[in-house]
Amino acid sequence: QAGEKGRLFSAEVARLDSQARAAVEQAKATAGDYTTPASLLQAEQLLAPHAAPVAELQRKVAEEQQRAGSGEAGRVFAQLAAQVNTIQGSVSTELSKLQTTRQQVEQDGKSREAELKDGKLFQEIMPEATEKANTAEDAVEKASITSEMIAAGGDNVEEVQRAVSETEAAVKAAQSSIGEARIYLNAKQAAVKRFESDKVRAMAATELAKLQQQLQEAQNKLNPLKTVRQDFMQRQAARKIVDEILEMLTPAELDCDRAEEAGNVLGGSGLSKESLQQADQALKRASEQIANCSRMVAHRKEKEKASAIILGEIETCEDRIKT
Q1: What is the pLDDT of residues 233-292, one digit of tens each?
Q2: One CATH from 1.20.58, 1.10.10, 1.10.150, 1.10.357 for 1-114
Q3: Of 76, 143, 148, 315, whose CB neighbour count within 10 A is largest?
Q4: Sequence-distant (≥ 6) Cβ neighbours of residue 67 within 8 angstroms
Q5: What pTM does this model have?
Q6: By C-alpha distance, which of 236, 87, 218 is closest to 158?
Q7: How many CB atoms sit inside 10 A of residue 112's CB?
């Protein structure tokens, strides 16, 4: 009975081995170069039905091998088990290869489709995004050039005031242009985050970030121009303060010159009493004038310490006093 079972199982193993080999070869032929999802799926469908019968036979042979023990029948079923394991390995390996390859090919196809679709959207975005960033940058440059007219106006207050107004208008237009560009770029950056293609998404994010940086640099250049009117008014105030200081400083400088001359005179001999008195008065007057100027400068520095422009002009006068 054991020998009969061995012969029956041997015949079944041979039959399944033949069918499985043929199925594997047919599946390989159908898969072709393993690059077409449809061919790979068809090959998978040809081979898949053979997996279950082989697995069932593998289970039955293992049971018979266990029953047969270690005798001759046991050795026969051990050999049959090894053959079935080989058949199962062949079918399983090829089936796994077909499934894995098909999934990869399908994924690659989806990635290419996403790359093409997202790439097209990206190419539609960039021209307008670049144009808006460049337009904003040009508007800032125009504002900067316009601001140079303020210094060129010199002492012509009317011309300077006109330059200030034109600069303010140019600054306002530039800020509006930057704002418009930022709104557009922010919207497109949000859209890019939804791209399916990792490659296109990364590339688009990088290019849009460059344009955002371009806008930030333009904004940094524009910011100082926003205070042109305040700066103009502070320079006007500084000029009045300087005139006030100079009104005191100029006579003080003259007294200093007289005091210096008096000092030279005092160094001589044979001076009259009247000459000595004049020299002494010149020295006292010069000292008083310098002290008054110094107090005035200190007062103005404390009062105008919030304004860098005014402080700068006052400090220039202070340096003049010290010399």
Answers
A1: 877 777 777 777 777 777 777 777 776 676 665 555 555 667 667 767 777 777 777 777
A2: 1.20.58
A3: 143
A4: none
A5: 0.60
A6: 236
A7: 11
